[in-house]
Amino acid sequence: MRKPTEESLLAAAKGILHKNWTGTFTKPAPSLYPHQWNWDAGFIAIGYAHFDLDKAEAELRHLFRAQWKNGMLPQIVFGQEAGARYFPGPDFWQTDQAAAAPEGVVTSGITMPPVHGFALWRMYEVSADPGRTKAFLREMYPKVLAFHRYLYRHRDPNDEALVYVRHPWEPGTDNSPTWDRPLRRMKVQKDQLPAYQRQDLQNPKAAAHRPTDEDYDRFVFLVDLFRRNRYEEELLDELCPFKVQDPLFNAILAWSNECLIHIGSLLGENVEEPMHWHEHTIHSLNEKLWNEAEGCYDAYDLVAGERLPCRTNSGLMPLIGEVPTQEQAERILKKLESRAFCGQSPDEVYWCPTYDLRAADIDFEKYWRGPVWINMNWLLYQGLLRYDFDEAAERLRNDTLALLERYGFYEYFDPRRHSKTAEGFGTGQFSWSAALYIDLLSR
């Protein structure tokens, strides 16, 4: 039986999703993010699947309506509301000049983590009408398959079955410390950048927590490079100065490959292609990105030809795709339970900070450089369960629910349990925080 606080928060979570529903998709938040974001849509659909199949299906249909002709699924699908209030908006991306861009839909020109395979499978697992959801899987399966095919065709230049991201917005962890080295290496002359005005700094309280102007100059430099080359894949692969094989992105790809195998088998489809992807991505994650000394997975900078030590919780995420061996998984658990993510005592922080607590530059309020994010906790929870790390999984679930009960449905959270200044940060009424609360409460 649920506690009264859980019942009231469940109602509040559903209310947030309904409030952020536009009629065709769900905004991540009421004002700061007025359009549809790619991986947000996947997490949001999981939440809806527990109580509103119509919206769960509509969420993903709207996203995949914007799929590019080459299979790429864009980071943002722009809606009609407040287009001028979000930067970069359609006028800045200029994706209409891309030959592969969809017709009748306005999008950004980059992608995000391929969460849709496991989102669809989770929808099927919790559906009150499995027959209906199976029909929806049949509709979506070829579209998700085409997205994965794009990733392996255009983002895997060495045929390693490890795909790269070409912008820090693509893995969703915008200002992660992992990107510091490749971003600093980029030579950006401010006077040669196109003019732009950030819209994410309008709230003075939140402005200090966002990526720096120096980061944003590099983000804009990359977008300008992409649009000047009309989003031609071969040119971008040759010219892009930021190409990183990220453990989070590839772990999500591995898990969604596995779920495509489940979906395809359920539908009676030939699943040789996703089986091939799945096997080879797991192999390459372990061969190339596993860090034996640290007990986690690193990133790899394809431009510099060097490993990027990963001190963030992205390095733990291959658990979700059952990538590590049992021995490797136990090393990851040891890392999670160490001072890196627990601090000096077991109750010092809410699990799981995004960044090593021992890092000199950790910032408990700054976006992806220390705070807890609900989607990352949800992912890590799935990974812990896969290896029967039930005690750790339950602690992570309880900490996640406790954060939401204490602060509300914010975007990210100060992990310090006993700090008098700790709070939720970013925007409130955040859709995936609400959606994943609904899913975690059902466990």
Structural class assignment: mainly alpha
Q: Please report which band the strand proportion falls in: under 5%, 5-15%, 15-25%, 25-35%, 35-45% or over 45%.
A: under 5%
Integer count of domains: 1
Tally of helical runs: 17
- The sequence of SSEs as H and E is HEHHEHHHHHHHEHHEEEEHHHHEEH
Fraction of helical residues: 40-55%
Query: What is the CATH-assigned architecture?
Result: Alpha/alpha barrel
The CATH topology comes to Glycosyltransferase
Topology of helices and strands:
Elements: H1 4-20, E1 36-37, H2 38-48, H3 53-64, E2 76-77, H4 90-93, H5 116-126, H6 130-154, H7 180-185, H8 204-207, H9 213-228, H10 233-239, E3 244-245, H11 247-267, H12 272-289, E4 290-291, E5 296-297, E6 299-301, E7 306-308, H13 326-336, H14 339-342, H15 374-386, H16 390-407, E8 412-413, E9 424-425, H17 431-441
Antiparallel strand pairs: 1-2, 3-6, 4-5, 6-7, 8-9
Helix pairs in contact: 1-17, 2-3, 2-5, 2-17, 3-6, 5-6, 5-11, 6-11, 11-12, 15-16, 16-17
